[in-house]
Amino acid sequence: MSVSLTWRAAIVSGALFACLILAWHVATQGSGTAATMDPEYAKLMGATATQGKSAMPGPLEVGEKLWSHIKRPFYDNGPNDKGLGIQLAYSILRVMIGYSLAVFVAVPAGFLIGMSPLMSKALDPYIQVLKPISPLAWMPLALYTIKDSSLSAIFVIFICSLWPTLINTVFGVSQVRKEWLNVAKTLEVGTFRRAFTVILPAAAPTILTGMRISIGIAWLVIVAAEMLVGGTGIGYFVWNEWNNLSIVNVIVAIVAIGVVGMILDLVLARLAKLVTFPE
Q1: What single-letter DSSP state applies at residue 137?
Q2: What CA–CA distances, in Å, run from 44 to 38, 47, 132, 238?
Q3: Would the pLDDT of 188 be above 90?
Q4: Contacts of range 182-190, beta carbons closer than 8 Å, 24 or more positions apart
Q5: Once rounded to an integer, what is the mean pLDDT over residues 31-46?
Q6: Closest Cα to residue 233, out of 134, 175, 157?
Q7: Buried (b) or exposed (e) across 140-159, using 16+ Cβ within 10 A?
Q8: What is the CATH number of domain 93-232?
Q9: pLDDT value of position 51
């Protein structure tokens, strides 16, 4: 039954993809009339005015450009002309550093807050004030204090990844069944051993859910952060290609961002599945 459902879902998904590509192809076919104008002015107006073509590239043109990036993902022709693989590698590295630091801070802090009603009440006002602040609002302060654009982007990733993991860890730890904790107390299990052998396995699915939300937000934010700080990264690539009026490369970058985001989410989803157990 599950295999049949998988195949049916794949067929429906493939049909939707084919319809989307067909609609895209039809929508980008030229329907206007070519105008006669001065050659220099025609260069500025582009193919839309001079040849009646659509200003938006079609799927075939995007596919050819995507294939050219896949064939040469790591070429380096200078600061403003690097392969898509290099740009993605910079972005993934920044996300992994900022995200790892956030998890390293959020999980122990979440355990502390979740296990201690005193710390929960004491820290809750700070969390409620800091949590709604947009990560990008920290960017000017980070650039001013850190004075390094790459480290500032990592700091922004750290901030945006911190809260979902922290809050989910607090929730997971505080929701561990009292019966299990009472049994551990009856057996005179120490605090640290109770945290690792009782609370952590019980709260792990909720913690991984928070980590999964964090990695999604981190990947969203890195694109915007790199547009601001420039230099390298997929966000800078999108902004640079927009300045070059290369809509084809912008669409290719959007596809790459989506695929990488999907892979990151699938990895965390698989990890969450490994620590989830039926009660």
Answers
A1: G
A2: 10, 9, 44, 22
A3: no
A4: none
A5: 61
A6: 157
A7: eebbeeeeebbbbbbbbbbb
A8: 1.10.3720.10
A9: 63
